[in-house]
Amino acid sequence: MTVPATVYIRFDVDARVHATPRRLHAAWGHVLDLPAGISPARARHLPSLAHRTPHDAPGPKPYCLGQMDESPGMIGIELRILNDHLLDTLDAWLAWGGVLPLGDGAEHTVLAAALEAQVLEQSSWEELAATCEHNAWSIQLLSPTVFTTRGRHSPGITPTSLATSLHSRWRRWSPQTAPTLPEHAHLERLLAMEDATHAVDVGLGMPRRDRRGRLADRRIPARAGELRICGPTGTPTTAAFSRLMALARYTNVGSHTAYGMGVIDVIPDPLP
């Protein structure tokens, strides 16, 4: 069984990095996705590649960006991983030299060379499923976040949209341990939210060969900022939401996550 993990990698850089979340996520895709030309059908028979997803696959990937920090000559990047087989891929890449191009490939692209890497945190799916004691959470949107319902982008974020998104990822990567998703009516009635987010427009810049139509040109309405969600102690709905919030340490939420959107930081913040 796979084990979610968080990894921090420190890089040497020789220039200031100006990389958007989309470009950073794409850079990691060249490290962690299937190599170009290898089909998923062929990869299933190759143990070193079977766990890797196609670079252009729709939907969320088993990895995403986390926090990032920068100082003169150095950049640190956190990776959140739902399938720890990718740790072997990452370790092999580091042993090969660990050079990550950051940019659009033009003259200002920065070649970041890995200096060190460490696993910050790992939790089994069973441990996440047992994290049911929290009743309040402070949530920071580290990259613009948007949810889609029936093909339309929602104007805001709700506890229901967060729970549904995280639950879908849990079912994708560990269906046997996934908690039961509370009914939407219970989530909406029992969970209170303080919304300090604001609207932002995000240009995905998708190439036309991506075949997602007008998304190549359109700007996406998203949210940035902070949230605080709390629920009554001792209810099944709050306990289920606590489990899902625990998973948020290792993944992102919402739509267009393959372009760096939907990365959140969740801190349990108990009610007084």
Task: Please describe what this structure looks like.
The protein has 272 residues and is an alpha+beta fold. The chain is built from seven helices and eleven strands. The strands form three sheets. Strands 2-3-1-5-4 form a five-stranded antiparallel sheet. Helix 5 packs across helix 7 (236-247). The longest helix is centred in the middle third of the chain and has 15 residues, at 159-173.
For the largest sheet, list the strands in their spatial order. 2-3-1-5-4
User: With helices defined by DSSP (H or I, 4 residues minimum), what is the helix count?
Assistant: 7
- SS-derived structural category: alpha+beta
Mean pLDDT score:
89
Q: Whole-Å distance between the termini?
A: 38 Å
Major beta-sheet overview: 5 strands, antiparallel
Radius of gyration: 19 Å
Percent in helix: 10-25%
Catalogue the unreliable spans.
207-216
Q: Which series of helices and strands comes N to C?
A: EHHEEHEEHEEEHHEEHE
Number of strands: 11
Q: Which descriptor suits the 3D outline?
A: globular
- % residues in beta strands: 25-35%
What tags apply to this protein structure?
25% helix, five-stranded antiparallel sheet, 272 residues, 31% strand, alpha+beta, four-stranded antiparallel sheet
Brief description of this entry?
With about 270 residues, the protein is α+β, with helices and mostly antiparallel strands. The chain is built from seven helices and eleven strands.
